[in-house]
Prior knowledge:
The structure is a single chain. The chain has 467 residues and is an alpha+beta fold. The chain folds into three domains: 2-79, no CATH class; 93-179 and 428-465, D-Maltodextrin-Binding Protein, domain 2 (3-Layer(aba) Sandwich), CATH 3.40.190; 186-423, Dipeptide-binding Protein, Domain 3 (Dipeptide-binding Protein, domain 3, Roll). The protein contains 18 helices and 17 strands. It has helices spanning 2-9, 17-25, 48-52, 66-69, 112-115, 135-143, 155-164, 200-209, 212-218, 235-246, 252-256, 260-269, 297-313, 324-333, 352-356, 380-392, 400-416, 456-462, and strands spanning 26-33, 36-41, 93-99, 102-107, 126-130, 168-169, 186-190, 273-275, 278-281, 284-285, 287-293, 316-322, 338-341, 419-423, 431-432, 436-437, 464-465. The strands form six sheets. It has a five-stranded mixed beta sheet with strand order 12-11-13-7-14. It has a three-stranded antiparallel beta sheet with strand order 3-4-5, with no helix packed on it. A three-stranded antiparallel beta sheet has the order 8-9-10, with no helix packed on it. α16 runs antiparallel to α17 (400-416). The longest helix has 17 residues, at 297-313. The radius of gyration is 24 Å and the shape is globular.
Amino acid sequence: MVFTIDMLRSHPGELGGFSASMDQWVESVNKVDDLTVEFVLKDSNPRFQLDYFSVKIYNSVYIMPEHIWGDQDPMTFKFYDAAQGWPIGTGPYTLASVSPTEFVYVRNDDWWGAKTGWRALPQPERLVWTWAGPPETRAALMGEHRLDSLMDVTLGTLQALQAQSDNIIAWYEDLPKAWVPDPCSRTFEFNLGREPWNDPEMRWAINYVIDRDQIVEIAYESSTFKSRHFFPAYPPLDAYVDAAEAAGVWDTEQLWTTDTARAAEILESKGYVKNGDYYEKDGQQLTLDITTHEAFIEKQRIAQVVVEQLQAFGINASTRNEAGGTWGDNHAFGNFESRMGWQTCGSVNEPWNSLDTFSTNWLLPEGERASRNWWRWQGPAAEEYSAIVEEMGTLPLGDPRVEELFIQAMDIWFDELPVLPITQAKKIIPFDTTYWTNWPTAENDYIHPPTWWQHTHYIIHNLQPAQ
């Protein structure tokens, strides 16, 4: 533990977001005894354990083995050598093979957890995580009972699968079928360091063009609902949004309003004129390039609807997919104009974490890898907002002043609209019960259904052979 934290602190921002966070917060970390580690923080942070050492959403700090990593350069070390049994971990499976499209794990029958009686060995002897091609190919494989689970599909795909087999299940037996909401709402995001999207009025113009009801109907087949905030619609967070609405600093009706006449008025006030199908200024057509992650059909479908809406209005918008690694790097380095994302993700029971994603404390120039504020929100309003959020971060959860500061922060954020809240994320995750049963469902709610987060071992431990 001490080794890992010190390694992260010594490479701030270079080893992912946790390295920046450990450098930001940790003054020192010391071993007290074999079961106790003491952190000395640089500043008050009541959320430190919650944010970094609990699987609040999907992950936490990964602890690396010092006896392997100690003499390595963490910037270049791959931690993969099949002959030496690398990587190693504490779970009941070891990595057997890896390729650009597939990871295969085999059960370690000598697993310490079973030997000590902590938990029985899971039933599956072999786990295969595979990239099985585009959505239609993946669905065809599941229809042939060659995949036990799919990451996320459309409602139409699920219904087609269930028409083929009674063994295909999802979170709900009836509509909307989906697990909603996922903790990361869907947001339309701009590079705020680039003109003209560094102008909040231009961002509001885009917002007035977007029709969220149409997105829900077409992109989601009505399997989710539109967002009134960038938070996931969880009761503890809803209460904060309710307070902001009651204070008059957050106007959901305005956010949800589709008003192309108002959008046109804003563009014309900025010097844009309609020339044929599109707006232009100084002879330059107003365009908007929207990138999406190649693996996520949900975001791709949102972007496709948004492009149609912007095109109909007079903005020459287009969308394109990028490979996951490229998409992530472009986001971190600011190499994008706009994107369909979910990077306001962070808060589930209190507001600070998601609010902090916009803080200017994380601001870096385009071309440098950012750990947060990937959108490069900046300027006096962003600075004022960030000071409020920084003060909030020093308060314990539940302190009455958190709500007061949240309202102040939202008063600034709503006018600036650095990202556009679009929809609550849904996950339609089909499971095939032909070979394995006891998958999580609304009726069998022992854990939520995503299979790509750190809780997935809990699903695997609960699976039972169908025969």
